[in-house]
Amino acid sequence: MTATTRGAKDDDVPIGARAVFRKTVSEADVYLYAGVTGDFSPNHVDEEYMQLGRYGHRIAHGALLLGFMSAASARLPLGRTVSLGYDHVRFTGPVYFGDTIETEYMVREYDSERRRVYSALTCKNQRGEVVAVAVNIRKFVD
């Protein structure tokens, strides 16, 4: 379903509408994110350290995937809404440098009394493995 909801009224919320954001995670992405946030955990920046552990390689920050979720939500215009945040965030698998992550944003529910839209987010890698999930809550501000 393609949503054309620019300037949408509350009763125009497109239940089932979806948007996708796709990105290959590079070493530069991880290091830039580490620099912006100050999170230089060896999990993300020390290959030798990570070779000794369960994952065998450096992994991307889970919170970087929240950025992908935000990018996916921005691709689906829902009128004048703001994000109130993400609930039930889970990082269910590692994201390695070079993985291509496809983030799907799907409108699931509309609470007309509170004027809130609830959408499911799922991040999958190129093998179809789910690596993160969340629920985004948006509120109409008109």
Explained architecture:
- The structure is a single chain.
- The protein is an alpha+beta fold.
- The chain has one domain: Thiol Ester Dehydrase, Chain A, CATH 3.10.129.
- Helices cover 23% and strands 35% of the residues.
- It is built from four helices and five strands.
- Strands 1-3-4-5-2 form a five-stranded antiparallel beta sheet, with helices on one face.
- A hairpin with a 5-residue loop joins strand 4 (116-124) and strand 5.
- The longest helix is centred in the middle third of the chain and has 13 residues, at 62-74.
- The radius of gyration is 17 Å and the shape is elongated.
- The two termini are 25 Å apart.
- Mean pLDDT is 91; it is low at 1-8.
The CATH architecture is Roll
Oligomer: single chain
Overall shape: it is elongated
What fraction of the residues are assigned to beta strands by DSSP?
35-45%
| CATH H-level superfamily | Hotdog Thioesterase
* Average pLDDT level: 91
How many strands appear in the DSSP assignment?
Answer: 5
CATH topology: Thiol Ester Dehydrase, Chain A
Strand order in space, largest sheet: 1-3-4-5-2
Q: Structural class given helices, strands, pairing?
A: alpha+beta
Low-confidence stretches: 1-8
Key words describing this protein structure:
single chain, 142 residues, alpha+beta, Thiol Ester Dehydrase, Chain A, 4 helices, 5 strands, 23% helix, disordered N terminus
